[in-house]
């Protein structure tokens, strides 16, 4: 019997993709783990049935090359495609570098479309699954990270539309509404360097990531849940991680002033720059 196969983007050590690769490998799948720099996931090479592929998800030609490698190994089918690669960009909107914001969307949004187009035929042949790593951030207008949150809102909506489009072709789509999970994304966030004339310059030190937030759930716990959901026939939006209950069921009913006041120092920032949130 042919092993099921899964390709995961963004598998650098310490992140969700890396842990998910291990979780699927333990379940007997053939795993194609990808990252821009294979050296950042080199430890996965020692695991049976794990193939490492260098892949920049913003490079259409690299995606074509990766698809050919997978096709050669699987006979033209891919059971699971996980669009996990992501980036962070934090900056007040008034001071946002538009080119950096576009680069963020290239990773967090457009890359998922490139991957679905590049591997879509293989997933359709397998009657497989597309897993898109969304986020509860896409439901929140959090100061200083609106660009990132908007990119996640975009992938959340894209994924749900894709689910309806692929259902007639026998393909399931999971939209992962991830809450706070231990990973590298906060550690990889940019240092905020503001222009001298920025309204927020007086509080620049207080704006530096990682930002205070609710407790994470362990990566291993999250990926075990996600692997099980993916293999169990689940479809649509699935929620897990720190703060998911609040964002899903409570936040929609609260005024913005209450939501942001739960973020440490948010009110003090507003006071010090002469602004009021709400």
TrEMBL record:
It comes from Massarina eburnea CBS 473.64. Belongs to the short-chain dehydrogenases/reductases (SDR) family. Keywords: NADP, Oxidoreductase. It holds the Pfam family adh_short. One of its GO terms (cellular component) is lipid droplet. This is Putative estradiol 17 beta-dehydrogenase. Gene3D superfamilies: NAD(P)-binding Rossmann-like Domain. The keyword Oxidoreductase applies. GO terms for biological process: phosphatidic acid biosynthetic process; triglyceride catabolic process. GO terms for molecular function: acylglycerone-phosphate reductase (NADP+) activity; triacylglycerol lipase activity.
């Amino acid at each position: 019997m042919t092993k099921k196969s899964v390709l995961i983007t963004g598998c650098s050590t310490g992140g969700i993709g890396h842990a998910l690769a291990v979780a699927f490998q333990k379940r007997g799948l053939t795993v194609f783990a990808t990252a821009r720099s294979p050296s950042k996931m080199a430890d996965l090479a020692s695991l049976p049935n794990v193939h490492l592929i260098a892949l920049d998800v913003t490079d259409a030609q690299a995606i074509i090359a990766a698809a050919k490698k997978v096709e050669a190994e699987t006979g033209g089918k891919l059971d699971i495609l996980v669009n996990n690669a992501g980036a962070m960009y934090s900056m007040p909107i008034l001071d946002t570098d538009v080119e950096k914001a576009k680069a963020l969307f290239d990773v967090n949004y457009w890359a998922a479309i490139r991957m679905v187009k590049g591997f879509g035929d293989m997933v359709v042949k397998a009657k497989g699954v597309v897993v898109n790593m969304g986020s509860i951030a896409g439901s929140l207008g959090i100061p200083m990270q609106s660009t990132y949150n908007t990119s996640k809102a975009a992938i959340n909506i894209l994924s749900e539309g894709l689910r309806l489009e692929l259902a007639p072709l026998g393909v399931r789509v999971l939209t992962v509404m991830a809450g706070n999970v231990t990973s590298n994304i906060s550690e990889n966030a940019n240092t905020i360097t503001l222009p001298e004339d920025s309204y927020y310059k007086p509080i620049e030190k207080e704006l530096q990531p990682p930002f205070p937030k609710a407790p994470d759930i362990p990566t291993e716990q999250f990926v075990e849940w996600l692997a099980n959901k993916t293999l169990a026939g689940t479809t649509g939006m699935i929620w897990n991680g720190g703060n998911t209950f609040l964002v899903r069921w409570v936040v929609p009913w609260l005024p913005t002033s209450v939501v942001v006041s739960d973020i440490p120092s948010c009110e003090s920032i507003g006071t010090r720059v002469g602004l009021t949130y709400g």
